Amino acid sequence: MAQKFEQFTTEIRTPFIKLEQLLKLAGLTDTGGFAKELIQQGQVLVNGEVCTMRGKKIRNGDVVTVDRFEVTVSAPVEEEA
Predict the structure, then answer these.
(1) What is the pTM of this model?
(2) How confident is the model at residue 5 (pLDDT cuts 50, 70, 90)?
(3) Which among 1, 19, 38, 74 is most buried, taking Cβ atoms within 10 Å?
(4) Contacts of residue 24, Cβ cutoff 8 Å, sequence gap at least 6
């Protein structure tokens, strides 16, 4: 049986946010310490792949999955230099 995800979008005002910060902003963790633990334990997916880098830059359109929650990030797109 396929797992059902609770999907929502989190909007940020900068071109990217660090993974650890996004987990707190989106309300998936209460503290940075818990976010760090989840990431290091391999319980966080970024665009369908396990990510163990707390500082991973999450940009517009990236999808972060934790447990049964799936967060899509809405962010301003960086201008090409």
Answers:
(1) 0.89
(2) confident
(3) 19
(4) 30, 31, 32, 35
